[in-house]
Amino acid sequence: MAQLPYNPENPPQDPPTGADRVLWVIAIRLYQEHVGTDGMCLAPTCRQQANLWPCESYNVARAGLLFAVREAVIPAPVEPWHPVTRIRRLDSSSH
Ligand SMILES: [Zn+2]
Question: Measured in angstroms, how far is the CA atom of residue 52 from the centroid of ligand 1?
Answer without folding.
Answer: 8
